[in-house]
Specification:
Strand order of the largest sheet: 4-3-5
Helix content: 40-55%
Structural class: mainly alpha
Radius of gyration: 27 Å
Strand content: 5-15%
Largest sheet: 3 strands, parallel
């Protein structure tokens, strides 16, 4: 059959997921409306007047509930019409008719981004299954480091002389030599025969020699990173500077895992029905070093990477919003069975929180600018697109309700103030439904994407940890920059492997070796909830008002359960990744001050 009459790709609406999502949205929205009605009505009730302390604390909790409801509502846009896509690269035109592609790989600091890892990404791009005369690979080194330049020369010689011919001769699927020789993937099309084995051993030997030369360059050079330098153009994999109509953008650690990835993207770009308005094709960001437990939730199931615009540290988000979707361009999300690209995820708490703080700061920068999606987007994008960008823009403000829910109900519990309806009240069922509905939907999404209950617990825990630390500090950082009190600064994520951190990560234990600024909030909130749970249960049992305080007791217990690794890090662990005693002592002091002053203020307001 003539390939020109067959589609290059197909889209399938996931009807069952769509029905589940829309039904959940309807039920959850109804419950939220009932919750909001209860809160508003309770402020105006006359049968049982409230004192000032109860009114004030309930108002704080209600504010947190409104913020959470708003963020939840924006997030439903992702779930309205989930689709999956299938591509048929074998139906593409002949090589001579394919358009040229520029591969753009970004790096910044060889002290944090291992040179050998960067070169493996470069080599995997050179070895893509695409016409060599139409594939141009560039490495952009913001640090202008000579080590990167010299290593690039070695990578070019190894790729052109040995690796690319070997991959094409035997149909090797994993085009990253490090991943291939480590045997991370079963990837050989023709992996038998003496000739193949001989060639494989020869190429492996050449690769080991290449690694030695790159490591020698690192060891014999002084790493000088200078981001304030004039543009220097030297050494390109392509013979001349190109200006291809398509660009493949890769992080320095995101190697090409499927040699057909460029062809897969072309299945959309060469479709005349969508190509005139198609701005980009997005593949999911997946990682090769994620453990089964994924204790730091590094897989990032919902994150999407494209663009270069300045003004924000999240240049991908900003470019997609301002330069593409708001100007009428469309995009396609393609998630093939074999990951098109694989990177190195962050595997220690410090790097996770520092990286997330940077992203949060960038998002808040956009939110506080004239490009706030909910203001800039409605006339330029569809309502659902506006909501999607809005959810990302306002995601940083999760820290407000989470700090509220982790402190105010607990303080009230210790002082005998009920901020939720008692268990015998009909509206208790409404609050219970909202809580259980949120958790069950999250569990369903994790399980349906191949995760486990352990994955769900880790995702829930890390969402809470990031919200009370990274979201808080990132938001403050952006506000300070907005006020001119701080300059924007790009912090490169550390991708150097530490053996002790790797061991803890593989064991599923959190490595608490990070700054006191990031640790203290976690320890303080955990201590507050332990104290409130124990004290609240004791007070409720003695006073005989357990029904009134049940929700607050349960909330404290839930937070303590999610914060168990923090308790373990304070008390039980003796390894390097434990929480330092000095942080625990400081946190106990701060918690005591908060609970004491808070109780004093509540007692004053109640008089």
């Amino acid at each position: 059959m003539d390939n020109t009459t067959l589609p290059l790709h197909l889209s399938h609406v996931q009807k069952s997921s769509s029905i589940i999502n829309r039904s959940h949205t309807l039920l959850h929205s109804t419950a939220l409306i009932a919750l909001i009605y209860y809160r508003i009505a309770s402020f105006f009730q006359t049968t049982k007047p409230r004192d000032l302390s109860t009114t004030f604390t309930c108002l704080l909790v209600f504010t947190g509930e409104l913020i959470l409801s708003f963020l939840w509502f924006l997030g439903q846009a992702y779930r309205v019409r989930p689709v999956s896509r299938t591509v048929f690269p074998e139906r593409l035109p002949e090589n001579v008719e394919l358009p040229a592609v520029d591969v753009f790989i970004c790096t910044a600091d060889p002290s944090k981004e291992p040179t050998l890892e960067v070169m493996n990404t470069v080599i995997s791009a050179i070895a893509l299954d695409y016409p060599s005369n139409k594939l141009h690979v560039y490495l952009s080194d913001d640090g202008g480091c000579s080590v990167t330049l010299e290593a690039m020369k070695e990578a070019w010689r190894f790729a052109k002389g040995y690796w690319v011919p070997f991959c094409r001769a035997y149909g090797i699927k994993t085009r990253c030599p490090e991943a291939y020789f480590l045997g991370e993937e079963g990837n050989n099309e023709s992996s038998s025969g003496s000739e193949f084995m001989a060639d494989r051993e020869k190429v492996k030997e050449k690769y080991e020699n290449f690694k030695s030369r790159v490591m020698g360059i690192r060891q014999n050079s002084v790493l000088i990173v200078n981001r304030d330098h004039t543009a220097v153009v030297e050494l390109r994999v392509s013979a001349m500077i190109s200006n291809s109509p398509y660009i493949l953008v890769l992080d320095c650690d995101m190697y090409c895992n499927d040699p057909t990835s460029a062809r897969q993207a072309m299945c959309f770009h060469l479709d005349p029905k969508i190509s005139p308005s198609l701005g980009f094709v997005q593949f999911p960001q997946k990682f090769h070093n994620i453990s089964k437990t994924d204790v730091y939730d590094s897989q990032m199931r919902f994150v999407f990477k494209v663009g270069f615009l300045y003004l924000s540290l999240v240049e991908d988000y900003f470019t997609g919003l301002v330069n593409l979707h708001c100007k009428g361009w469309k995009s396609v999300y393609c998630d093939p069975v074999r990951p098109a690209f694989l990177g190195a995820g962050t595997t220690n708490l410090n790097d996770v929180l520092v990286q997330f703080t940077r992203w949060i700061s960038g998002l808040v920068e956009v939110t506080l600018s004239r490009f706030c999606p909910l203001i800039y987007g409605p006339k330029k994008m569809s309502a659902l697109q506006t909501m999607c960008y809005g959810e990302q823009a306002f995601f940083p403000f999760y820290f407000l309700p989470l700090w509220c829910f982790a402190t105010i109900p607990q303080l009230c519990l210790l002082n005998g103030i009920a901020v939720y309806p008692e268990a015998s009240n009909w509206f208790f069922m409404v609050f219970s439904f909202v809580f259980l509905s949120s958790l069950s939907k999250h569990i369903q999404e994790v399980l349906s994407t191949g995760g486990s209950m352990r994955s769900w617990i880790n995702e829930q825990r890390m969402w809470m940890i990031k919200s009370v630390t990274s979201n808080l500090y990132g938001s403050l950082d952006a506000i300070m920059k907005r006020l001119g009190m701080r300059e924007a600064k790009f912090m490169t994520t550390n991708k150097v492997i530490d053996d002790e951190q790797t061991r803890l990560y593989q064991m599923g234990k959190i490595d608490f070796q990070t700054s006191i600024m990031l640790l203290a909030p976690l320890v303080i909130l955990t201590i507050i909830n332990v104290v409130s749970f124990v004290g609240g249960v004791t007070r409720a049992m003695v006073a005989g008002k357990f029904s009134d305080m049940f929700t607050q007791v349960f909330l404290s217990l839930f937070i303590v359960t999610m914060g168990y690794p923090v308790i373990e890090g304070m008390i039980l662990r003796k390894d390097k990744g434990r929480i330092p005693p000095s942080v625990t002592i400081l946190s106990v002091l701060v918690s005591t001050i908060f609970l004491s002053l808070g109780s004093l203020l509540l007692s004053v307001f109640r008089k």
